[in-house]
Design brief:
The structure holds 2 protein chains of 2 kinds.
Chain A (H helix, E strand, L loop, with lengths): L8 E4 L5 E6 L9 E5 L6 E4 L13 E6 L2 E6 L8 E9 L2 E4 L3 E5 L1
Parallel strand pairs in A: 1-9
Antiparallel strand pairs in A: 2-6, 3-4, 3-7, 5-6, 7-8, 7-9
Chain B lengths: L2 E5 L3 E2 L5 E8 L8 E8 L6 E7 L4 E3 L7 E6 L4 E6 L8 E9 L5 E4 L3 E5 L2
Parallel strand pairs in B: 2-11
Antiparallel strand pairs in B: 1-3, 3-8, 4-5, 4-9, 5-6, 7-8, 9-10, 9-11
The chains are: A mainly beta, B mainly beta.
Chain lengths: ~110, ~120
């Protein structure tokens, strides 16, 4: 497992765009996924293979990758998007999770 | 539809061994590519991957915990069992099991989690 670094917090007004970054040395060689976790609930997969969206996830969630950084973008943020978000990527020893980012909707 | 559910003790004493069971439905660990992993989350902290097991009995462990972990499967019962030895208060966490397909890199379905507290 290796280190994936995220900003501790991101604040955004409703309707605006939130961008959450995740940095790691292996990201140019491995796909990343993103999970949303609301208080008291299990994580939910919102993005996989850097930019693929599972069925049932709103289109406002998108992912991108550039070099050693992957980014989760939430366009037109809604109050219900307030949650913790974690990136995840595998390496030779197994999956690693990011440090987590708390998204606050102002 | 894939579902997973964790079960096990809510309280263990320091130095004891924790045994958790993940009972799943909607897929089989007899099927090529299928896998189940365990992830824990201490209160207020980040997710931490613990272990993985695949249909072919390939097992992977977190390097930092591998000396304390054992993961096994019972395909007839659709269950995966995780044991963690020498539990300490810092091991208190919500433990999740999750479905994973080999080569996909992500966990697509998760159980609700079970909180384990280590307390003397």
């Amino acid at each position: 497992s290796y280190e994936l670094t995220q900003p501790p917090s991101v604040s955004v007004s409703p309707g605006q765009t939130a961008r959450i970054t995740c940095s790691g040395d292996a990201l140019p060689r491995q796909y990343a996924s993103w999970y949303q976790q609301k208080p008291g609930q299990a994580p939910v997969l919102v993005i996989y293979k850097d930019s693929e969206r599972p069925s049932g996830i709103p289109e406002r969630f998108s992912g991108s990758s550039s070099g050693t950084t992957v980014t989760l973008t939430i366009s037109g943020v809604q109050a219900e998007d307030e949650a913790d978000y974690y990136c995840q990527s595998p390496d030779s020893s197994g999956p690693s999770f990011g440090t987590g980012t708390k998204v606050t909707v102002l | 539809q894939i579902t997973l559910k964790e079960s096990g003790p809510t309280l263990v004493k320091p130095t004891q061994t924790l045994t958790l069971t993940c009972t799943f439905s909607g897929f089989s660990l007899r099927t090529s590519g299928e896998g189940v992993g365990w992830v824990r989350q201490p209160p207020g902290k980040a997710l931490e991957w613990l272990a993985l097991i695949y249909w072919d009995d390939d097992k992977r462990y977190s390097p930092s915990l591998k000396n304390r972990l054992t993961i096994t499967k019972d395909t007839s019962k659709n269950q995966v069992v995780l044991t963690m030895t020498n539990m300490a208060p810092v091991d208190s966490a919500t433990h999740y099991c999750a479905h994973r397909v080999a080569g996909w890199g992500h966990f697509d379905y998760w159980g609700h989690g079970t909180l384990v507290t280590v307390f003397s």
